[in-house]
Write a structure and sequence with these properties.
The protein is mainly beta. The chain has a single domain, classed as Porin, CATH 2.40.160.170. It is elongated. An eight-stranded antiparallel barrel has the order 1-2-3-4-5-8-9-11. The protein contains two helices and eleven strands; from the N terminus they run H-E-E-E-E-E-E-E-E-E-E-H-E. This is Outer membrane protein beta-barrel domain-containing protein. Keywords: Signal. It comes from Yoonia vestfoldensis SKA53.
Amino acid sequence: MILRYLIAIAVCAMATTATAQDRGAASAGLGVTSFGYTLEGAYQLRPTLGLRGMIMGGFSIDDTFDYEGTSVNGTADLGGVAVVADYYPLANAWRMSGGLFFSNSDVSGSFTEGAVTYDGKLVFENDVAPMVTTGFRIGMGAGWGLSGDIGVIVSSLQVSSSNTTPTVQTAVQDTNADLADVPVFPFAGFAVSYAY
């Protein structure tokens, strides 16, 4: 549902005439992403190019998760830091962004792969991974802005366990083989910012 709203806002934003020139060079914002609450700062180098940093975290979820055939009963602690360059190809609200995501997210708990259950941890295979998104930033007057992004982090997930039992390690290997088939992880974010 949130993804539909972001897409709708992005399409509308592409038609606006609000450009990077309409706001100050530096801005700070608060929002929410798929990795938790976010504090972000941005600097507009020129109308079509900007730099942005995001610190994300604060989400901890206790639940049962099913991912690629593996059931996980545990806790997901989400967070990370991202540094991206924003490119506004039409010098309007629409942007394409690329950069790096530094993960400090993990899911820990009881994993079930087939008939084998073990304690383990699920993390990004790469602690530092490329990040590619598209989105928008529209000015709302008096320095305020609204922005959103959808995209992917280019890294698969990986399970590990301190249990060295052969059946457990075989289950871990099977799970990682399945996870390797999904080389990206989705990302979405929404923020309100103030330019000064």
